[in-house]
């Protein structure tokens, strides 16, 4: 998606050769017009797939996920990293280890929002080691829901997330694929 790649080049910053800072439009401040384009771009590929839910994880997955859900006219669920006060006791849960942050989070979705009737698009802002996405597909499989694809805004292709997910049979669809962040520059996969 050209608009996204242009935005990454103009507004992204490379930190330590493996981290891309995009807090001015995706992970902190959000560019709604860009999110809307992202939503349309993904939704166009899945309009005939009978998607019933979009599933993401808080926090930075929510913005792109909502715009995809808006386009496909389906609800958007975000897995929580902390249990909310009002959450029912019936939860689907999975643990997600972040190699980047060196911490493990228990993520959860209420059983009432995801069932075996659902056909899901999983969405996240970044794909690095694939652990968050794996946790999300685990929640879907606990619910008996099927997963059409895993939609990623920015894939760091030099990390192993995509291959891990593909090995497990999931389709990974990323709008920006980064080959490397060498020399403080973003190199995309052509
Ligand atoms: P993984 O799920 O692919 O294994 O990712 P990893 O544990 O490495 O990433 C942990 C967190 O860091 C995730 O957000 C992920 O979206 C984010 N992240 C990974 N690589 C980058 C990067 O290059 N740039 C930025 N800006 N973020 C990155 P989180 O902390 O779990 O959630 P959130 O609340 O920030 O969305
Ligand atoms: Na994320
Ligand atoms: Na993030």
What CATH calls the topology is Rossmann fold
Structural class: alpha/beta
Low-pLDDT regions: none
Determine the number of helices (DSSP H or I, runs of at least 4 residues).
Answer: 5
When the domains are counted, the total is 1
* Hetero groups: guanosine-5',3'-tetraphosphate, sodium ion
CATH class: Alpha Beta
Q: Looking across the biggest beta sheet, what order are the strands in?
A: 4-3-7-8-9-10
Q: Please tell me what the overall shape is.
A: globular
Strand runs, count: 10
Mean pLDDT: 96
Distance between the termini: 11 Å
The CATH architecture would be 3-Layer(aba) Sandwich
Percent range for β-strand residues: 25-35%
What is the makeup of the main sheet? 6 strands, mixed
Radius of gyration: 16 Å
SSE pattern: HEEHEHEEEEHEHEE
- The helical percent reads 25-40%
């Amino acid at each position: 998606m050209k608009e996204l790649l242009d935005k990454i080049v103009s507004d992204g910053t490379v930190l330590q050769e493996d981290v891309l800072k995009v807090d001015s439009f995706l992970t902190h401040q959000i560019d709604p017009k860009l999110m809307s384009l992202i939503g349309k771009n993904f939704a166009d590929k899945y309009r005939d797939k009978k998607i019933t839910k979009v599933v993401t994880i808080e926090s930075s997955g929510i913005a792109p996920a909502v715009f995809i859900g808006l386009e496909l006219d389906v609800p958007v669920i975000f897995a929580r990293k902390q249990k909310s006060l009002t959450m029912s006791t019936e939860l689907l849960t999975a643990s997600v280890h972040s190699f980047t942050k060196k911490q493990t989070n228990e993520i959860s979705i209420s059983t009432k929002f995801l069932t075996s009737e659902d056909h899901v698009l999983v969405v996240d802002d970044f794909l690095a080691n694939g652990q968050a996405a794996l946790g999300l597909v685990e929640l879907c499989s606990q619910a008996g829901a099927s997963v059409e694809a895993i939609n990623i805004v920015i894939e760091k292709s030099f990390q192993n997330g995509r291959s891990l997910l593909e090995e497990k049979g999931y389709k990974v669809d990323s709008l920006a694929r980064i080959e490397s962040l060498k020399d403080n520059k973003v190199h995309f996969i052509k």
